[in-house]
Amino acid sequence: MPWTKKLLRVDLTNGTCESEPLNMDWAKMYLGQRGLATKYFVEECDPKVDPLSPENKLIFATGPLTGTAAPTSGRWSVITKGALTGAIACSNSGGFFGAELKNAGWDMVIFEGKSPNPVYLNINNEEAELKDASALWGRSVWDTEDMLREICGDDNIRCASIGQAGEAQALFAAVVNDKDRAAGRSGVGAVMGSKNLKSIACRGTVGVQVGDPMKFLQASGACVKILKENAVTGEGLPTYGTQVLMNVINEAGALPTHNGSDVQFDGASKIGAEAMAEPRETDGKPNLVSTGACFGCPISCQRVSQMDPNHFAVKGKPKYHGTSGGLEYEAAWALGCATGVSDLEALTYCNFICNEYGMDPISLGSTVGAAMELYKIGAITDNDTGGIALEFGSAEALCKICDQTGLGEGFGREIGLGSRRLCEKYGHPELSMTVKSQEFPAYDPRGIQGMGLTYATSNRGACHLRSYTVASEMLGIPEKTDPLTSDGKAGLVKIFQDLTAAVDSSGTCIFTTFALSADDIAPMVDADLEGEWTSDTLMEIGERIWNLERKFNCAAGFTGADDTLPQRLLKDAAKTGPAEGKVAELDKMLPEYYELRGWTSDGVPSNETISRLNL
């Protein structure tokens, strides 16, 4: 049974849960998870819908490989119209919740309407029921999960929840599962909070079957072998996690610092992977306690950290003396480099806050960095911040403002708007480092040119996981390209975008593509599903998904004018490093990209492209 072939439709307004058959024609065209759920969403939702209105829908989706023996098969996604961006949103997560949902017998859950009171959805295999969540409202993700296991009388349930940030509708609130894995970007947690939906508690024992078990095990086994033997997935990520990149990107002069005004950070070595593993002077223990892995993952890139109990941020807060998901590269960059803070323990505390309250650390850190620049130029004062001196490099200010943002209190409510709205409110929209209202991640396009085009054209706003050209430009995967040139990057970005869309729809992790190509992934899909599935099939599906998302955004009001970058990146040259004197050369790449996509000169999919992809 490759797909479960059914979905759960939850009407929050009327309190009903109904099973319905999966549209198999769509499944064969869009595969699953990101692609299939997006198809459902765009067919059922008005592109002009207010993201925080009851008319917006929220879809939790698995892929056909989720919960199987495929490597990294724990992935699942949340699809909606993003609260932060107003664009199509698909936020991907790992952990164990996705596999549990699939093992309960569901390909996806569609939430519609708004509950009059706080509720959670309880799924036990084929049984699903909305239950009162009044006792959970106002609680953190951590407390919610503990309470639900006690309420349900089952320590084996898996939960996906919002914390106080989602309840307060901070526009970059996340949906957190397994306490420290998250569907983090675009404000999907704010949409969930707007519906008075606190959590999904799931227990699944039905199991997952594949089409041809022997063929599938052979294909998945071959992929595991490739992943184990690859330098990145078999050595770099297991040993150092994504934090392996901190010093690498800094030396390349592509580490956005002080709200993107610089491309190198003097404190990078204090907050990277090596620093996490070093014993602290205070207690002789390292920040990094152990590694971790999501369901079915042979890579084990997750970091598990424990803070110094004597650090100022956790004095009197015993709950933070335990372990939680440690700093990933993007979180360490946003909370550290963007704000100029090089206190590893302070960054870990703020990352724990994101885990507990349910926030995207990329948008949080970047927005705080923007606020610090506003404070520096006098556009924000102590009267605005309630006395918090939001100075670059202040670990104390960072910790205080992250606390406030997670709880929706004080100036934290302003931070919860995201940097575009914050900077507009205080008169300096040019200081927002965003694309389509979403904060860009930890790679400066002046030093890695392909990432500039990646950010500008990403359907969900600035994002590295829609087209990780860093793999090619910095790591030489699948082949080395020069990060300082824009030549050939349009084609590179398109290929990465299409492949990523297919992988996101399969139920596996994009990190596998450091080692696996479409030729490696296709045999697993082919052994799992009905029909014939080749690498060409997957790439066509990826292209179809990308154009479907683009069509929705166009109908929502986005145009080619939104495919741009902050003026700082286009006009202010890098001051140091290998990219010194360079700006992001978006103007050279974008016209070629539109042509390769089969779009008009203003970025609209042509009728020929729409027809070719059966859209």
Q: Tell me the distance between the termini.
A: 27 Å
Q: CATH topology of the largest domain, what is it called?
A: Aldehyde Ferredoxin Oxidoreductase,  A, domain 1
Percentage of β-strand residues = 5-15%
CATH homology-level superfamily of the largest domain: Aldehyde ferredoxin oxidoreductase, N-terminal domain
How many domains is the backbone divided into? 3
Judged by helices, strands and strand pairing, the structural class is alpha+beta
How are strands sequenced across the largest beta sheet?
Answer: 2-1-6-3-4-5
The biggest beta sheet reads: 6 strands, mixed
> What is the CATH domain class of the largest domain?
Alpha Beta
Brief account:
With 615 residues, this protein is an alpha+beta fold. The protein is built from 25 helices and 17 strands.
List the helices and strands and how they pair.
Blueprint: E1 6-11, E2 16-21, H1 24-30, H2 33-44, E3 58-62, E4 76-81, E5 88-93, H3 97-103, E6 108-112, E7 119-124, E8 127-132, H4 141-152, E9 158-161, H5 164-167, E10 175-177, E11 181-183, H6 188-194, E12 197-203, H7 213-229, H8 232-240, H9 245-251, H10 273-277, E13 288-292, E14 302-306, E15 323-325, H11 329-337, H12 344-357, H13 361-376, H14 382-385, H15 395-407, H16 412-415, H17 419-425, E16 434-435, E17 438-439, H18 449-457, H19 470-473, H20 489-506, H21 518-528, H22 535-556, H23 567-571, H24 586-597, H25 607-612
Parallel strand pairs: 1-6, 7-12
Antiparallel strand pairs: 1-2, 3-4, 3-6, 4-5, 7-8, 9-10, 9-12, 10-11, 13-14, 14-15, 16-17
Helix pairs in contact: 1-2, 2-20, 2-22, 7-8, 7-21, 11-12, 11-13, 12-15, 13-17, 18-20, 20-22, 20-24, 21-22
